[in-house]
Amino acid sequence: MKHKDGKPGSHPDKNSRAFPMAMMFVVLCGLSFYLGGIFCSERDKIEVKDVAKVVSSPKESSVAPLQIKSTAFPECSSDYQDYTPCTDPRRWKKYGNHRLTFMERHCPPVFERKECLVPPPEGYKPPITWPKSRDQCWYRNVPYDWINKQKSNQNWLRKEGEKFLFPGGGTMFPRGVGAYVDLMQDLIPEMKDGTIRTAIDTGCGVASWGGDLLDRGILTVSLAPRDNHEAQVQFALERGIPAILGIISTQRLPFPSNAFDMAHCSRCLIPWTEFGGIYLLEVHRILRPGGFWVLSGPPVNYENRWRGWNTTVEEQKSDYEKLQELLTSMCFKLYDKKDDIAVWQKASDNSCYSKLTYPDAYPPKCDDSLEPDSAWYTPFRPCVVVPSPRIKKSVMESIPKWPQRLHVTPERILDVHGGSASAFKHDDSKWKIRAKHYKKLLPALGSNKIRNVMDMNTVYGGFAAAVIDDPLWVMNVVSSYAANTLPVVFDRGLIGTFHDWCEAFSTYPRTYDLLHLDGLFTAESHRCDMKYVLLEMDRILRPAGYAIIRESSYFMDAISTIARGMRWSCRGEDTEYGVEKERILICQKKLWHSSNQSSR
């Protein structure tokens, strides 16, 4: 044995020290095991405390606020006015054509990231406010003539003077979406009584279906890929209708399993029967047990429609029979059918899925190694995700009807580490107080000046629930690195998506009126560069739009410095309780026009 100075030590009473040293060793091991157990059980737990209560203030911890050097960000060139970094057509040639994989998310590497401000189109104006925006938008805000010329005979939209008008037509409903949805409601009575609240529209066109459903109490995520001409998602968001860029190709959509009450495809050109029905398997995964899948267009009503589809009646009959066979194998049943609309319903219980265990069954049941809710760059697998038998109150027949379900504790909160009914109720109450305070700080919140809202790092959708009576909708974002609380958001009758804020969001520039974050940099600054997150916020925020940034006081100076470099005006405000550890920044993006600088 040696002392810490390296000199040899004597052992005058070796035996007398053996027992105390052994006891000390046992005590230290026990203490280490106890502390380790506490750490492991708590590290993933969702705290219901406010950030202000868990983040040390500079005064208490003697840590000075983060300071960064002031930078004025340059303008991007005008050809970046519709820049979508992770779905950029300029980079498509780098990726394969198989199953249109080039249209999936492919984000640029760090060294190719833009550090400039995306300019608005020439002649850009503040968007028309809701509800007028559902029927019209400024042409210069979304200056795409291609879709106007190609779809004018189907009444998707038409250009009149300085505006695009949206008559409510579509490929399968050229005479208007209202009559189309009326027929759909006759086939699905659950659309009328609050049973169906959330829906997804794949291949959404200009989102007329989702827009019509808003008046019927159904909140729809309109989904379409980025393309060079149609700009479907950009039209939807300019109208004030929820939408996101995405494509059913080789990876799961960024939603949890058993999320939507209804899915819809109106001649969306998705080859449902190809590749072993892999796209139908994804619809099955994201549909709630007892949920509905609605299809209009080929091969439905092929007996009367086949002549207009550049095919033969035999081919369309075969395709319909194959579609029906695949859906039956996935435990869908034909619910109803009339004219051009067919409706299938996903099984409400798991009794049907026992057949998937047969050796020759196709598609087979997914094994336990595949997490049902894993949906961020998760590749498709040709198997059926069978709903957990623990899900009993989340099936269509059992979930509370809208609007009661908004404030009922979802059963899937128990799947969240640390989640409980009391945590849910606390979160619900907390956000009612916070939203009331926000409206004092930002009177535009609750008026028709704010329509498209994003909660950038929600937990249970509390902010969205607190403003549910205002003329707005909220895209609830759950970090792909955070605890999986998105099923709870959907079970409440709200909508959202998974996302990683180290990357660009799946939307066009200038698509949100308000961005809200709560402790995002506290949670993610160790992974994501704050500068790029704020530049992404600038890209997706509309000119004259707002950001409510709720953060630890440690980050406030740095955020303000970057915001000034983006031409934002910000002011600091106290939280509703006036604590020093946490502050609120109310920021507004300036409307400016491109000076036609060269590409950066």
Report on the structure:
It is found in: Endomembrane system; Membrane. It is an enzyme of class 2 (transferase). This is Methyltransferase. The chain crosses the membrane at residues 21-39. The protein is of the alpha/beta class and 600 residues long. The chain has helices spanning 14-42, 51-54, 58-61, 146-151, 177-187, 208-214, 232-239, 278-286, 302-305, 313-329, 421-441, 462-466, 486-491, 520-524, 530-540, 553-565, and strands spanning 136-138, 158-160, 163-165, 198-202, 219-224, 243-245, 260-266, 287-296, 332-338, 341-346, 452-455, 473-479, 495-499, 512-518, 541-552, 568-574, 582-589. Among the domains are: 175-398, 3-Layer(aba) Sandwich (Rossmann fold), CATH 3.40.50.150; 400-589, Rossmann fold (3-Layer(aba) Sandwich), CATH 3.40.50.150. Strands 6-5-4-7-8-10-9 form a 7-stranded mixed beta sheet, with helices on both faces. Strands 13-12-11-14-15-17-16 form a 7-stranded mixed beta sheet. It has a 3-stranded antiparallel beta sheet with strand order 1-3-2, covered by helices on one side. Strand 9 and strand 10 form a beta hairpin. Mean pLDDT is 88; it is low at 1-29 and 31-61.
